[in-house]
User: Fold this.
Amino acid sequence: MTSPRGMTRREAVAVSVAALGGAAVMTAGLPTAAAAAPRTTSPAGRPWQGEDRSAARRADALLAAMTFEEQVLLVTAVDPAEYAPLAHLGIPAMTRVDASDGLRGDTGVTAFPAPNALAATFDTDLAERYGDAIGTEARAKGWNVLLGPTLDIERNPRYGRQAESYGEDPLVGGAIGAAVTRGFQKNDVIAQVKHFTVYNQEEGRNSLDVVVSERALREVYYPAFEHTVRDGGALSVMGSYPKVNGVYACQDAHIIDALKNDLGLKGYLGTDYYPSADRVEAIKAGVDSAALMPDMPKDAFTDGRIPKERTRDAARRILYALFASGAYDNPLPDTPADVVTNAAHQELARTTGEGATVLLKNDAGLLPLSRKKTVAVIGPAGKDAVTGIEGSSYVDPGDFTTALEAVTAKAGAARVLFSQGSLGDVALTTIPGDVFTTPDGVPGLHAEFFAGEDLSGTPLATTTTANIDFRGGNPVGGLPSKWSARWTGRITPPATGLVRFSTLLSGAARIVVDGVTLLDESRFLWDSFFGPKESAIGGVTQLTGGRAVDITVEYSTRDAGWNGPSMRLGWQPRSLIPAAVAAAEKADVAVVFVNNYTGEGFDRDDLSLPGDQNQLIQAVAAANPDTVVVLNTSGPVLMPWLGKVKSVLQAWYQGAATGTGIANILYGDAEPGGRLPVTFPADEHQGPSVYTGGKADDANGTITYDEGIHVGYKWYDKHRAKPLFPFGHGLSYTSFSHDRLRVTSHGRGDQAAEVAVDVRNTGRRTGSDVVQVYVGHLPTKVDTPARTLAGFAKVTLEPGQRRRLTVTVTRRTLSYWDESRNTWVTPTGKVPVYVGRSVTDVEYAGTITVH
Assistant:
């Protein structure tokens, strides 16, 4: 994330200006040069300004002209004003913005669908246009360093930032990441891809130690970065927070050496904001820019702690990126634009959302809907929709068209019945004191406070409180830094039915109502610090109106984050489900929208839909057999109601497209073009091991990636586990056939083989198909995956149309990392090849003969 402090963006750009005086087949490719003015030659005495020279030669020439003090300044500059002494050399201020799915912190911009939604399109051409649009808006707003795209592998779907990256497969992540990067850098800006490496959870992230094999690093966690650097031309990389095998990633010379020498980074390595790594050791290990380490001790560059040659190399890498990107030669606008979104970009957001939407289930062809049918729209389908992941990637969507508005526009107001049904994943209002009574029968709750975090010993204080609501501090005076508390009493609900309880929490809490444990969890934060929503956790229980029941709430400062101890106990005492059921009974079709909130700073506690949303779906489906569920979620959720509904759409977070794109899919004005870039588990126990350590920044927890290379769908193959929905899955409103499969081996070159297939639209509607090519076990005794995605191709065909597609399989795909020899090994022999529509829906195509 970038700093929320300091100058405003407009002030920063003003200072920098003043200082200067004013059918998509997945293939590897290099960045496309944008149209530019004629290249200039070197003026006398300033050879680095000649655009006819290579970026490397220009960087060498400018480095030679800089004093050592100027080199240190370039490496350590944070705010744009700090670049002013470099203006005489033509070096621009470097202005940074988080940009994974649009410009975080700006208004008048386009909020694009979340990155994992983009991955679901399996469309690299679309991804490049997505990146180009963001890059165009960034330059117009005064930014020349874009922090993104995010290439973290989704190891576990509970990861709070899973929606920021491109799923579980390194090939998909690399192909989409490279395309977005090419789009970014067409606009004379630097892409800083993140986070290198094994940043796969939020819990304890600043001190976490990830124990992972070298083979897993090379085969799972590095490839997306290598693809984006080599084929996308990425000019910068952001290091990650955790330790890797005991050493912080930002001071780990081993992995930094791999990034620069093996993965091919010619530009510079920066850090995430305020990493826990030692500042001096990070620079010595290979970090080149301290822009997100404002507390960097500058005297370390002159007192011998940091070798001068390391400083020169770091400065040269930054210069290389400035020249190679075009940021040096093309100054930012004098005045940032107020509004940079436009109709074309909004349209691109919409088509991206449509292409990302995955049709998971469609029994009896219920979708697309007929405009003649009455439809009950139920759930958070208005401005309460979740438009994006919160934290460093949250983008203001502006005044977007809601799903309810878009559906009403298509069906007509007379055919649409709306019922809220559920508030979705939101913070509930604080429980008022007048519904509580203490064990002694007086209003409020009896409270006991203890020294230590385990509710033991004699209470330090006892009192009666009206409710439970404290944030960023202690509820009573005199408590030590670590404390715990217990509130007891009775609560009387005003109505009979499901009652929701929730808490905004920094610390650990347990809530028991009428003998039922509704919550027993901890949270580091309850707010992702960028974005309008707050993250509440809790549960539901059935209660009788007017009947008092026991309530016990326990709290501990364990895992409390930097905002200090916090807890606010809220509730929704009257269920909205009965009214939703009544609406569903009156309609021909019921469309239920559900959501979840995720963001930076915390991980999901489980894979269930939050609150009462599962109960809502089950009740609506019982009332109307023609029920559609739209999942406005960050990723996989469990679906205990799956057998009771006809259709399910995975819509992800769609940014500005929220509403319009989904309505177009529902009514068949657009094709659900998405395929799953992640596996959907069937239960909480499927997938790699789950972290169980402390969640606070300083927890110093450890997690071992004992699954090795078997991440995502490879874990399911390894353990013969059946997921809810497999990687690559996605249905269509039409049908396709695959025939004339052919595998052609190529011998010893980098291109090991070509796999060709004829794709024909055998249905009655225009639609898109994603052809997926997998290779099987390699011809070796070494453990290799049963299926590895080797390539993919997306094609849109009209009814009856046929097209022959060819996917190239690289030699690297047929190799494994040999830890004993510290190199890639390509076993010779025959490798099976499969072609299909998901990792489980494939047919044997032939073999590749590797020599």
